[in-house]
Amino acid sequence: MPIRDFVTRPNALFASAMLLFTIAFIGMDIAFFFPLVVVAPLFIYWSFRRPEIWISCVILFHAVILQRTEEITIWEVLYGIYFFGFIGFWIVDHLVARSTSILREPADLFLAGFLGVSFLSGIVALASGASMIHWFRELLTMATLLVFFPAREIFRTRKGIRFVVISFLLLTMGLAIKNIMGYGTESAAVKYYFQVVTSRQSTYTQFFAITTVLSFSFWIHRFEEHRFSAVAFVAFMVAAAALIATFYRAFWIGTLIAIFLLFFFLDRSKRTLALFGLVGSLLLGALGLWIFAGNLGGAIVSVIGSRFLSSGSPLDDISFTNRLVESEAAIAAFLRSPILGHGLGASIEYFSLLSKRTYESWYIHNGYLFLLFKVGIFGTLLFFGFFGNVLVRGWKIARDQGTLHDVVHLVRGTWAALTSLLIVAVTSNVFIERESLLVIPLASAFLMSLAESPAKRPTPGVT
């Protein structure tokens, strides 16, 4: 390579920064950390020039940043720097270096408008005396939706799709095995019937749900390709087992609805195959429980059945009744400021039937009421303008017989999984949880990458 091709302005700036780091570390005599400080910027610079590497790292990073803690961890700080650093780099590259428009579709405008309202809700939150720390944390969580814009370009290449699918599958399978083993360890020590549920592993539920739907769609659509269908079936069984171990009824129902929606795209032979596959997987799962868990396996199956059937009579469930009380408080608060809401970071108070005390909460289980309370009617319409536009465009692609064979299973599975979130959101707030705020923009970006008019597409991503 000629030296003049290597000595570009970015490379020169990067080399200068490394030289300053070297001088500083020699002077401070903490050379032990020097390799990490050198390697990290090198990797960041390298991955920023390769968006498919960056997005894979963002996905895999969720294995460590989803730990449920009150305080901000060092992993969250590092993730934030890495995530928002690339977003800023990508925006500058498109607007300045390449003079390329980022907002090209109605969905883009809706999403940008919603994020703008979310940011400006800080003014409302400040005026109402809300916690600005909570406003900032909720804003950062919402800002994860920004991954939609670079992801849409990444999905335009087969390479980008492979990177995202493989990294997401690795993340989900790792977390699923961890949760299944955790549930097995805790349930092995149960003494009472109710402890079968209290041993639940309720984290990462959204990842398990969408992987269950996508792997099932993959298995059905590409059943004749035995190598791929075998991998898909194993992924389906593992993800479904982890989903069941969460004992999260909303996502059980949402996943079944998504699988039901897939039937609209299948011919008669595929529908028959899907039904046999579902029945066979249930029998296989029950057999596995009986072999590995013995009598405990029978108890687990019984609890799963009774918990699922109890979804039909929610008023007998005190946790559901408590959420109705929470919803009433949210509606009353929303009506006091219906247009602008109370801002991210705002909280509601209600008397909890579970703890028997007045409870202050920044989280509202009903996702629709959460948005209405936080960003008002205006912000909520912008969000569902984005979400609805994606679903409509995705439906058209999923029904299009011309959709490429190697992605049609992903298109239909993605659309079905996204649509099912509209049901899940009634009792589980998928519009603020970190898992779903990774799933929603990635799934939306994939559908829009295929729906966008070729004339509006920019040149390939950062190189």
Descriptive overview:
The protein is an all-alpha fold. The protein folds into two domains: 10-48; 54-319 and 359-456, no CATH class. Helices cover 72% and strands 2% of the residues. It contains 19 helices and two strands. The protein has helices spanning 3-6, 9-28, 34-48, 51-65, 74-97, 106-127, 132-142, 148-154, 158-187, 195-198, 205-221, 226-245, 249-262, 268-293, 295-309, 318-336, 367-399, 405-424, 436-451, and strands at residues 348-352, 357-361. The chain has a two-stranded antiparallel sheet with strand order 1-2. A hairpin with a 4-residue loop joins strand 1 and strand 2 (357-361). Helix 4 (51-65) runs antiparallel to helix 5, helix 4 packs parallel to helix 9 (158-187) and helix 17 packs antiparallel against helix 18. The longest helix is centred in the C-terminal third of the chain and has 33 residues, at 367-399.
Q: Quick gist of this model?
A:
By secondary structure, the chain is an all-alpha fold. It contains 19 helices and 2 strands. A two-stranded antiparallel ribbon has the order 1-2.
Feature tags:
disordered C terminus; disordered N terminus; 2 domains; two-stranded antiparallel ribbon; mainly alpha
Task: Map the helices and strands.
Blueprint: H1 3-6, H2 9-28, H3 34-48, H4 51-65, H5 74-97, H6 106-127, H7 132-142, H8 148-154, H9 158-187, H10 195-198, H11 205-221, H12 226-245, H13 249-262, H14 268-293, H15 295-309, H16 318-336, E1 348-352, E2 357-361, H17 367-399, H18 405-424, H19 436-451
Antiparallel strand pairs: 1-2
Helix pairs in contact: 4-5, 4-9, 6-7, 6-17, 8-19, 9-12, 11-12, 11-13, 11-18, 13-18, 14-15, 16-17, 17-18, 17-19, 18-19
